[in-house]
Amino acid sequence: SQSLPSGSQSLPSGSQSPSDRLGATALQVPARLMLVEEAEQCLPGHSFETLQVMLEQDHVLHVELHHPEKRIAVNMAFWREMVECFQDVGQDSSCHATVISGAGKCFMAGIDLMGMGSEFMMVEGEDRARKAWNLCRKICEYQETFSVLEKCPKPVIAAVHGACVGAGVDLISACDIRYCAQDAWFQEVDIGLVADVGTLQHLPKIMGSWSLVNELAFTTHKMMAPEVQSSSLVSRVFADKEMLLQRALEAATTIAARSSVAVQGTKVNLLCSWDHPVPKSLRYVATWNMSMLQTEDILKSVQVAMEKKGPEDVPFSKL
Ligand SMILES: CC/C=C\C=C\CC(=O)SCCNC(=O)CCNC(=O)[C@H](O)C(C)(C)COP(=O)(O)OP(=O)(O)OC[C@H]1O[C@@H](n2cnc3c(N)ncnc32)[C@H](O)[C@@H]1OP(=O)(O)O
Prior knowledge:
- The chain is α/β, with parallel strands linked by helices.
- The chain has two domains: 18-256, 2-enoyl-CoA Hydratase, Chain A, domain 1 (Alpha-Beta Complex); 261-313, Lyase 2-enoyl-coa Hydratase, Chain  A, domain 2 (Orthogonal Bundle), CATH 1.10.12.
- Helices cover 48% and strands 13% of the residues.
- It contains 13 helices and nine strands.
- It has helices spanning 18-26, 36-45, 76-91, 117-121, 128-151, 167-173, 199-206, 210-219, 225-230, 241-257, 260-275, 278-292, 297-306, and strands at residues 51-57, 60-65, 97-102, 156-160, 163-165, 177-181, 185-187, 223-224, 236-238.
- A six-stranded mixed β-sheet has the order 1-2-3-4-6-9, sandwiched between helices.
- Helix 1 (18-26) runs antiparallel to helix 11, helix 2 packs across helix 3 (76-91) and helix 6 packs across helix 7.
- The chain is globular.
- It starts with 17 loop residues before the first helix and ends in a 13-residue tail after the last helix.
- The model is unreliable at 1-41 (pLDDT under 50).
């Protein structure tokens, strides 16, 4: 059977409760214990089968999904490598923001229909209860492949061109910012199952229209770039892939120049308000800031603002 992605739980945990997710984000236990120096050297050069990680600018990593000859149809290695990669991004204090895009003609053609079919048909277990238990465990492992994007405290920007199908929609719905090119299209595909790795949980909160979410989910309606923009699934549309990547990297660079205490704390607290009612989120941010307001970054930021400079002029310490 498939080995567990590092850091994932060994028993079916069901879908993660909001507080699990928040706890994991705020107090992430290193999945692979690694010195900061090691992590810094590790990621850009790290060899993955399905991901290429490039250092684009100071503190900005570009993660490119690879399998262009199969239009980024994702195989077994992908599910494991995404977890490894973004756990490392989370630990790597020299990475402040990430862009994720597809190599070749599209962002992602969903699961590898040839290679992954047997994964769900062939579940181990001596009886139905044990098979169900093992299947639940597998589903939770697959969920971790995209949940890791939310748990990573560094903002992740999805830059989508061409097709973004099935698992591609699950992936982008777990990202913090979504941009696309004019040629992008998005689709849920009918393969006879309920989507179970994030789309159905995220889209109703992301998109402005329940009706459109239902349409996408029930009819497999193909959404083109203008429609995804008007429905808020993406926040910006660019003329082509080149412009898309340029602008996504610019946004990541802007984020990377800011105080990590501010940016990462903002991501954690936005996720808190996504999951919890306002009074609870207000209480959480008060508790958060009772320590984080003691950062030197505030004084440094105020000083450069007074001098009419930008955050890129501040030597913020690593986090
Ligand atoms: C754990 C479960 C969690 C999540 C589950 C999610 C469900 C899904 O993801 S279902 C989605 C399944 N995907 C699809 O139905 C998309 C199928 N592909 C396409 O529609 C098209 O390939 C395209 C993405 C629109 C691109 O079209 P085009 O540019 O014309 O390329 P093609 O000639 O069609 O394909 C080139 C090459 O790639 C192979 N390929 C494409 N998609 C897949 C795929 N999903 N699985 C396996 N292989 C794929 C295609 O067969 C071609 O291969 P050749 O060997 O060159 O024939």
